[in-house]
Amino acid sequence: MEEIHANLHDRLQEAKEQGWLGEFAAIEASLAAAEQKLAAMRDLTTRHHTVHLGMPDLRGVVARIDSKQRNEDAKRQSRALQRGDDRLPLFKCGTAITPELAELAAIPDVSDDERDRDKETRRAPSTVPRGHYAIDPEPWGPPYVTQDDQEDPKPAQSRGPVVCREEGFVISAGSRHTVLVHPDDAAGLQPLPNWENSKGCCGPTGDAGHNRACPCGAPVATLAADCFGPFELHLDPVRTYALSQ
Question: Residue 69, SS3?
Fold first, then answer.
């Protein structure tokens, strides 16, 4: 728990530096919960019996809304209170995104051979098999920064193609520790309005930002499904959280 608490502090500082206001608010809430859990654990050390603290494992993944959505809900809640309506909107939608999933120790090596792609959709085999998840330690998605070596550039992100923009070849400096799942294990997610951030040839490239939303409308994931990249779904590590079934 102390390691989680320290990691949240680091993520909070990163969100502040990058100006990620939605993520900043969500991390603050997670940090407050971690501090409460730590206080409870320290209190237990003064006692001489064992109490289950209910630490969840990553089995089902549930969505939570960002600060913008939370502000909109707060306004609706205020209006509802003024008219005496007791059916108040929740700050967390709590929608289940996936069924129970089993953890993989590492991201599987998946063939990127053209012959292994689906003949109709041109998609690669899914990086993660159905019913499983893996934590991606590498950055994924925006923001992107210019690569130092423009003569021999690396792929912009793990299992993706090289990306060249006006400033040159770029590499992801986005979120680490996204939760990688089979896209079919989160079938309830929907494209953003007007297919925002879903550009690509045969599917979204996954390098433009969140392109899949929870049924409540909050962007929570990034689908990569183009014909020259991987086939995988990245759940945002701040906007989604684990819940034991």
Answer: helix
By the 8 A CB rule, do 174 and 141 touch?
yes
Nearest one of 162, 142, 154, 145 to 229, comparing CA atoms? 162
Total-model pTM: 0.65
The sign one gets for the Cα dihedral 195, 70, 99, 232 is positive
| Torsion sign across C-alpha atoms 224, 228, 229, 230 | positive
169 pairs with which residues across the strands? Answer: 164
Helical axes 21-44 vs 67-82, angle rounded to 10°: 80
pLDDT digits (tens, 9 = 90+) for 117-161: 988 888 999 999 999 999 999 999 999 999 999 999 999 998 888
CA distances to 4, 39, 70, 232 from 35, rounded to whole Å, are 10, 6, 22, 33
Tokens of 173: 């400096």
- Rounded Cα distance, 225 and 200, in Å: 9
Residue 178, beta-bridge partner list: 136
**What do you get for the CA distance between the two ends of the chain, in Å?**
21
Tell me if 220 sits within 8 A of 214, measured CB to CB.
Answer: yes
Reduced to 3 states (helix: H, G, I; strand: E, B; else coil), residue 101 is coil
Question: How wide is the angle at C-alpha 8 spanned by C-alphas 148 and 131, nearest 5°?
Answer: 85
Cβ 210 vs Cβ 236: under 8 Å? yes
Distance, CA of 1 to chain centre: 21
Tokens of 141: 């998605």
CB atoms within 10 A of CB 230: 22
